[in-house]
Amino acid sequence: MSDWTRLSAAALAEKLAAGEVTSVKVTQAHLDRIAAVDGAVHAFLHVSAAEALATAADVDARRAAGEQLHPLAGVPIAVKDVVVTKGLPTTAGSKILEGWVPPYDATLVERIKAAGLPILGKTNMDEFAMGSSTEHSAYGNTHNPWDLDRIPGGSGGGSAAAVAAYEAPLAIGTDTGGSIRQPGAVTGTVGVKPTYGSVSRYGLIAMASSLDQAGPVTRTVLDSALLHELIGGHDPLDSTSIPEPLPALVEAARQGASGDLSGVRVGVIRELQGEGYQAGVLARFEESLALLRQAGAEIVEVSCPHFEYALGAYYLIMPSEASSNLAKFDGMRFGLRVEPSEGPATAERVMSATRGQGFGDEVKRRVILGTYALSAGYYDAYYGSAQKVRTLIQRDFDAAFAQADVLVSPTAPTTAFKLGEKLDDPLAMYLNDVATIPANLAGVPGLSVPNGVSDDGLPVGFQVLAPAKADDRLYRVGAALEALLEKEWGGPLLDRAPELEETR
């Protein structure tokens, strides 16, 4: 194999286990790829070459000594910069945390390190995960590998772009309203939002604590299942962590890859299609439904009437929780500290000056929205009402799952738009998450799998949703669709992406 960066994580794991290649060689190949193309893509904020190679060398030595290792040991990974990593900078894409190096690891990072996966570095993101395009990073835009003039989705555009550009076989993202799945759709990668509470949030820099969820970003459904099983499971350090083991995700993905969905009921969500959805997105969606039907699935239509209010409810709940969570960034204890330009340096003046210079416009917009929604006299009218809508959306899911094993929709209404195209129109930007937000409000798991390209030659995604704690259903259906599509295409969708020019 001349280019180890083109293999899936599962294929790399097999070759590492068989002794056909070393982790040092695989890790160096990915570091070389980052050096070659990331000048154009800007997926990474920090590359940890020395640390990654040290981990790889350790794994190789332990494997040579005959030690039993985790199946993914030696396979490199990238981590979204909202996840704290001991000894590596963690900025959440914000100037207010520029240069901050955490003294501890997030639980999922501990699990990654314990399994022996070399961490290539930290990926770019919208500041504090607030955005749908990775244009709100304080450290510059990430570019879509399919078209460098277009957005890679957000907030986790860096992780998706790194995987799509073959800079990493695996990555960690976080999904608060679609920040794993929407970038997956527009970059031709697989993105999974696990059931809320099934992957520890300990060590995630919180935006909205009742919505945030970490999950896998990969190029195949099986790779996502392998990574999900590694990072998931109960964590006593997270009070919202589910005290139960995960279902058999890898087994479900392997079962689905056979292409047999006999007996599976697939519910098409009536409210998540039609007006506002690009014609090519809807065409690929209908073609994918036909493939699922051919695989033996029963296709039924379901209605979730309160989904039309999900966007409004989300943009009250999320900023309210964000305004509370971001209060800790005050210039007093860690991160950026800005002294006031005039007058005495009182605590209030330092906080005001630090937040004024440290937070970007989108973060300020959401903090102001959230603070207003939580203020005296408005709490019941805004935040309280949004929580009632959230309950209605959860009931819609319950009713729909009584009729179907999984629910499906397009992941995003359009393909990747051009950088700068929607920056001056926040509402247009927010509408990118119209199909992904309901899952976060209800806490159910969701998966986006690439299902073709639209008429503009850009990738689109197919979203699968399952009941809480039934993440295995995502992997069975997602792997089946992936196998059927790749049989039609003669290979993965990313094989059709234009080759990136080296910039080093």
From TrEMBL:
Q: What is this protein called?
A: Glutamyl-tRNA(Gln) amidotransferase subunit A
InterPro entries per the UniProt record, alphabetical: Amidase, Amidase_CS, Amidase_dom, AS_sf, GatA
**What gene makes this protein?**
gatA
Function in brief: Allows the formation of correctly charged Gln-tRNA(Gln) through the transamidation of misacylated Glu-tRNA(Gln) in organisms which lack glutaminyl-tRNA synthetase. The reaction takes place in the presence of glutamine and ATP through an activated gamma-phospho-Glu-tRNA(Gln).
Q: Which GO terms describe its cellular component?
A: glutamyl-tRNA(Gln) amidotransferase complex
A matching Pfam family: Amidase
Question: The Amidase domain covers which part of the protein?
Answer: 26-474
What reaction is this protein's catalytic activity?
A: L-glutamyl-tRNA(Gln) + L-glutamine + ATP + H2O = L-glutaminyl-tRNA(Gln) + L-glutamate + ADP + phosphate + H(+)
Q: Which family is annotated?
A: Belongs to the amidase family. GatA subfamily.
Protein's organism: Cellulomonas fimi (strain ATCC 484 / DSM 20113 / JCM 1341 / CCUG 24087 / LMG 16345 / NBRC 15513 / NCIMB 8980 / NCTC 7547 / NRS-133)
One of the GO BP terms on file: translation
- What does the UniProt keyword field contain? ATP-binding, Hydrolase, Ligase, Nucleotide-binding, Protein biosynthesis, Transferase
